[in-house]
Amino acid sequence: MSATSIHLTALDGIVNVNSLFTLAVFIGLTWNPTDPSNSLIDSTQPSACSPGPNVAEDLVAFHVYSFSCFLFSSLVALGLKQATRLARGSHHDEHRVFWAFDLAHANRTALRVGYVVSAVGSVCGSVFLMLALVNVVQIKLGVLGCGGSRHGYAAVVPLVMFVPAGLLIYVCTVFYAFTR
Questions:
Q1: 39: number of CA atoms within 13 Å, CB side?
Q2: 115 exposure class (CB count in 10 Å sphere: 0-12, 13-18, 19+)
Q3: How many CA atoms lie within 13 A of 91 on its CB side?
Q4: CB 119 within 8 Å of CB 171
Q5: SS (H, E, C) the chain
Q6: From which residue to which does the signal peptide run (predicted)?
Q7: What is the tens place of the pLDDT at every residue in 58-96?
Q8: Cβ atoms of residues 147 and 132 within 8 Å
Q9: What is the dihedral of CA 72, 75, 73, 79, to 10 degrees?
Q10: Rounded distance, CA 78 to CA 76, Å?
Q11: Closest CA to 119 of 171, 44, 60
C-alpha cells in the first residue's frame, strides 16, 4: 500500500467516524429534553435534584458545538482527500491541464497542518458530545451534585474516563503520524 493510499484511507476514516458522531448528535437533538414523561427522576426526590432549564440549554448548545466541530473536521478531511487525489492524479497523467493551478506537487506541510486541524476538530467535537451526554444523564437521572444521583455518577464516570483516554490515544497517534 502506497503512502498516498494510507493517507486517503486515514482521511476516509476521519470522515466515517465524524459521520457516525454527527448522526449521534442529530439523534440527540431530536430528543426533547423538556418532555416531562421522558425523565427517570423519581418524583419523591427533592426538587433540588431536578435539572433546571440551563441543563437543557447546555445540552442543545453542546450538541450544536459538537455538530459544528465534526462538520468542520469532515470538510477539512474531504478537502485534503480531494487535493491528494488531484496531486496524485497529476503525477500519473503528464498531459492533464489544470486551468490556472499546478496541483502536481502537494505541499506536505500544508497537508500535515490540514490533518492536525481535522484531528483537532474531531477531538473538540468528541469533547462537546461527551458534555452533551453528561447533560442527558442529568436530565434523565438527576443533577450530579445531588445525593440521590448515584446512578448518574455510575453513568458519567465511565464516560469521562474512557472518552478522554480514547482521545489521548487518538491525539498521540495523530502526533506520531504528524512527525513521520
A1: 19
A2: buried
A3: 8
A4: yes
A5: CCHHHHHHHHHHHHHHHHHHHHHHHHHHHHCCCCCHHHCCCCCCCCHHHCCCHHHHHHHHHHHHHHHHHHHHHHHHHHHHHHHHHHHHHHHHCCCCCCCCCCCCCCCHHHHHHHHHHHHHHHHHHHHHHHHHHHHHHHHHHCCCCCCCCHHHHHHHHHHHHHHHHHHHHHHHHHHHHHHC
A6: none
A7: 988 998 999 899 889 988 988 888 887 776 665 555 444
A8: no
A9: -140
A10: 5
A11: 171
Nearest to 166 by CA among 123, 134, 118: 123
> Could you report the per-residue pLDDT of 87-146, keeping only the tens digit for each?
666 555 544 444 333 444 557 777 788 888 998 999 999 999 999 989 888 888 878 877
Amino acid type, 72: F
Residue 155 pLDDT: 86
Set of cell numbers at residue 42: 423519581
CA distance 165 to 162: 5
pTM summary value: 0.76
**How sure is the predictor about 18, in pLDDT bands with cuts at 50, 70 and 90?**
confident
Q: What is the mean pLDDT of the chain?
A: 76
d(CA 170, CA 168): 5
The residue assigned the cell 490540514 is 114
